[in-house]
Write a structure and sequence with these properties.
Blueprint (H helix, E strand, L loop, with lengths): L18 H13 L6 H14 L3 E5 L2 H11 L7 E5 L5 H8 L3 E5 L11 H7 L4 E7 L8 H11 L2 E5 L7 E2 L2 E2 L6 E5 L12 E5 L2 H10 L8 H5 L19 H11 L2 H19 L5 E2 L15 E5 L5 H10 L15 H6 L6 H9 E4 L7 H14 L3
Parallel strand pairs: 2-3, 2-4, 4-5, 5-8
Antiparallel strand pairs: 1-9, 6-7, 8-9, 10-11, 11-12
């Protein structure tokens, strides 16, 4: 007999769409044109302007954006792409899609779980084509130092900006430091449309490459033929079906108008969360208070100081109706990667993955919700 799922009283993420979002999607559905078309182009222009980038190419996912970014950097069989292991698996998988080898590098510390430039430098070889830096949790990693390092070695810097739309480093939007930036619009992200991604770049060549490859490398798209601009096409290379559809583009365009307001609310709530968590013994709260003002504040990660207690604390919170997750299990610990790359050892990453817990967080969270999480966490950490 099927059982009814029990949802937590305080979920990890929660999304609230506004009436204008629903109307934007409904208008697209009424138009009768659902695949890549004018609304996608409008969103691309708006997002590029928001970032201060020359080009934004909407895609089916951030994974697709990473794949095309690595390809644009020249990654192929025999090449290497240096990536963190403390991230979602797609950061490394996209290198494998190219036939290249992901080389896992260490994070700085549990207080700063960002890619360590010094460890990256030690791992650069003549086969290295690119370094991918992840802006974990919406906080800027050392993209400036990594850009200088990559330039000195003649390799590309790619930014995985899945967590960090509109976050900045030195006043400059993340995603604009390297050859390309890859964004995510997945259901739980800061700018969510369910599925979707985007590649931004200042390179005309990379933009042309991404636009071509996202739609089977055809010289014209279906919209061009629908509007009579052409009635034929050529296929000039091996391309992919990485298109974003019009309903999602319309939703993204609608939600983009509130992005800064929602991030402002996220920063307010994050600052308050951090004050509450500073009073909880037995945890490390990554990043510094001063970094909140430039972050997109995607998640609230904590590290349980004592190794071996992650599961217990998570279970105790679940019993109190509070959902948590692990952001992230180390990629090199997954079976598919252990088999391909045995012997990888990243002690700081491994400790972070064994002790990290992500707490409930979303823009419409209340102060009472935060108080409840902090109090429950303190109880869950008790011996």
């Amino acid at each position: 007999m099927a059982t009814t799922p029990t949802f937590p009283e305080l979920p990890l993420f929660d999304l609230q769409l506004q009436p204008q979002d629903l109307e934007a999607v409904a208008e697209t559905l009424r138009s009768g044109w659902l695949t890549l078309g004018p609304r996608t182009a409008e969103f691309e222009q708006a997002f590029a302007a928001h970032l201060g980038a020359r080009h934004a190419i909407a895609l089916s996912s951030c994974t697709a954006a990473l794949h095309l970014s690595y390809l644009a950097a020249g990654a192929g069989p025999g090449d290497e792409v240096i990536v963190p292991s403390f991230t979602f698996a797609a950061t490394a998988a996209a290198a494998l899609y190219c036939g290249a080898t992901p080389v896992f590098a260490e994070i700085v510390s549990r207080s700063n779980p960002s890619l360590d430039p010094e460890d990256v430098e030690r791992r650069i070889t003549p086969r290295t084509k690119a370094v991918c830096v992840v802006h974990y949790g919406g906080y800027a990693a050392a993209a400036d130092r990594l850009k200088d390092l990559c330039d000195a070695h003649g390799i590309a810097l790619i930014e995985d900006v899945a967590h960090a739309p509109s976050a900045t480093l030195g006043g400059r939007k993340l995603g604009t430091w390297g050859l390309a930036g890859a964004f995510s619009f997945f259901s739980n992200k800061v700018l969510s449309v369910g599925e979707g991604g985007l590649l931004c770049t200042d390179s005309d060549e990379v933009a042309e490459f991404a636009r071509s490859r996202r739609s089977h490398a055809m010289t014209s798209g279906t919209w061009d033929r629908h509007t009579g601009r052409t009635d034929s096409y050529d296929v000039t290379a091996l391309g992919f079906n990485y298109r974003l559809d019009e309903p999602r583009a319309a939703l993204a365009l609608s939600r983009l108008q509130r992005l800064e307001a929602e991030i402002s609310r996220r920063r307010e709530l994050t600052a308050r969360y951090r004050q509450l968590l500073a009073q909880v013994d037995g945890i490390i709260v990554p990043f510094a208070d001063a970094e909140v003002a430039s972050s997109s504040c995607y998640v609230i990660p904590i590290m349980v100081e004592q190794d071996g207690r992650q599961a217990t604390v998570s279970s105790r919170l679940r019993e109190r109706g509070i959902q948590t997750s692990i952001f992230y299990p180390a990629i090199h610990g997954f079976s598919a990667y252990r088999e391909r790359f045995p012997g990888v050892s990243l002690p700081i990453t491994e400790l972070a993955s064994r002790t990290e817990l992500t707490l409930p967080f979303y823009p419409h969270m209340t102060y009472d919700d935060q108080d409840r999480v902090a109090a429950a966490l303190a109880e869950a950490l008790a011996p």
